[in-house]
Amino acid sequence: MGKKRFGIAIPTELVNELDTLVKDLNMNRSRLVEQAIKEFLCEFKHYLKPHECTGVMLIFDTASSRSSDIIDEFRDIILAYTHHHIEDRCIEIIVLKGSSETIAKLHKKLLGNNCRCRFIPFHLIGHDI
């Protein structure tokens, strides 16, 4: 596979964090950014083709958000839900099963409410990206 160069502009603080991580992981910047983009694409591109989906939604730092109101709207696709307090932070773990469109709506609403969240479809767990 060939490589293509392109430029991006990101905040200085983010570059500093990236460079620290690159050094700590003993990787080069391009390789780390490539891996991050692959994971991001993998996480979101499955929403593009409608299908039935099962996976885990992880929601971080929910104390300042109204995630519980949003989650309540999607009860019909929730198989399991747990809420934990770790130090001064909240984490919610939700097992979901439903249409990719509905899961995408939940994901978008949470992101729009400034929740840090990730959805990991079960078909991706244990597979290389």
Layout of secondary structure:
Layout lengths: L11 H14 L3 H17 L6 E9 L6 H6 L5 E9 L2 E11 H13 L3 E6 L8
Antiparallel strand pairs: 1-3, 1-4, 2-3
Features:
single chain, 129 residues, alpha+beta, 2 domains, four-stranded antiparallel beta sheet, 39% helix, 27% strand, globular
The biggest sheet amounts to: 4 strands, antiparallel
List the secondary-structure elements in sequence, H or E.
HHEHEEHE
Tally of alpha and pi helices: 4
Category by helix and strand content: alpha+beta
| Major sheet: arrangement of strands | 2-3-1-4
**Secondary-structure arrangement, i.e. CATH architecture of the largest domain:** 2-Layer Sandwich
- In CATH, the homologous superfamily of the largest domain goes by the name ACT-like. Chain A, domain 2
Mean pLDDT: 86
Principal-axis shape: globular
Number of strands: 4
Low-confidence stretches: none
Instruction: Report the β-strand fraction as a percent range.
Output: 25-35%
Rg (C-alpha, Å): 17 Å
And the CATH topology of the largest domain? Alpha-Beta Plaits
Q: How many angstroms does the end-to-end distance come to?
A: 15 Å
| The top level CATH class name of the largest domain | Alpha Beta
How many separate domains make up the residues? 2
Helix content: 25-40%
